[in-house]
Amino acid sequence: MAAQSFPDVQLIQLQDVVKKYPVGGGEVEVLKGINLEIGRGEFVSVMGPSGSGKSTLINMITGIDRLSTGEIRVDGNPIHQFSEDQLARWRGRSIGVIFQFFQLIPTLTILEYVILPMDFCGVNPAGGRADRARHLLERVGIPEQAGKLPNELSGGQQQRAAIARALANDPPLLVGDEPTGNLDRHTAGEMFALFESLRSEGKTILIVTHDPELSQRTRRVIRLVDGCIADDRANGKAHLQ
To answer: Are 220 and 42 in contact (CB under 8 A)?
Structure first.
């Protein structure tokens, strides 16, 4: 499918975002005044050494963790102002999160697992949720695995199931923290091809990765060092900050 172009609209906006954690009798500053914008329809990777703040940045954007100071808006929503209940409702409908360790539920079939977010958020008529789940499993290339339990699938198939679940409520944003970290290189490459296909359909994709080769398959690379954006590369050109 040929890539489409999307309006230059910012989906993610971070302004002066600081995150501090209490340590002993003091604090450690993990994010140090991050300013960042990510446009709708972008495919962006975040890189940096261990401890640079990559996962913390992702957790700020998804609302899994709270900032210390600053502002975060996702699709116009000021999530830094949301209550925990508001965050949970917003996250369920607006973001698909993909983890390194798949986090499938061992007692649910793959079909039931993909239906679960729709049940939680009341998305789609109840009678049509199974059909949507089957469509998503076909979209990620594992329709024949619908009735199986997670332990009957390979690692690559489990990650495809996790992506189908992330897509269940049709969120505009997919976020992955090392989503290919437990996959071999060939399977990881297939996952990135799937991400690019989803981006071409309008999804915004934001992932953390340690793999420089895979990061070069994204449209933009942001590098964190010591809690700051050290550079931001698009089309091979670096913009130091």
So the answer is: yes
Quote the CA–CA distance of 215 and 221 in Å, as a whole number: 7
Closest CA to 157 of 131, 182, 120, 129: 182
Report the candidate in 240, 212, 203 with the shortest Cα–Cα distance to residue 46. Answer: 212
Rounded distance, CA 38 to CA 57, Å?
A: 13
Instruction: Name every residue whose Cβ is closer than 8 Å to that of residue 138 and which is 6 or more positions away in sequence.
Output: none
51 pLDDT band, cuts 50/70/90, is very high
Question: Which H, E and C letters describe the chain, residue by residue?
Answer: CCCCCCCCCEEEEEEEEEEEEEECCEEEEEEEEEEEEEECCCEEEEECCCCCCHHHHHHHHHCCCCCCEEEEEECCEEHHHCCHHHHHHHHHHHEEEEECCCCCCCCCCHHHHHHHHHHHHCCCCHHHHHHHHHHHHHHCCCHHHCCCCHHHCCHHHHHHHHHHHHCCCCCCEEEEECCCCCCCHHHHHHHHHHHHHHHHCCCEEEEECCCHHHHCCCCEEEEEECCEEEEEEECCEECCC
Q: What is the pLDDT of residues 4-13, one digit of tens each?
A: 444 457 999 9
| pLDDT higher than threshold 60 for residue 235 | no
CB 160 within 8 A of CB 142: yes
Name all domains of the chain by residue range, CATH numbers in brackets: 42-63+83-238 (3.40.50.300)
Is pLDDT of 32 > 60?
Answer: yes
How much of the chain, in percent, has pLDDT values that exceed 70? 94
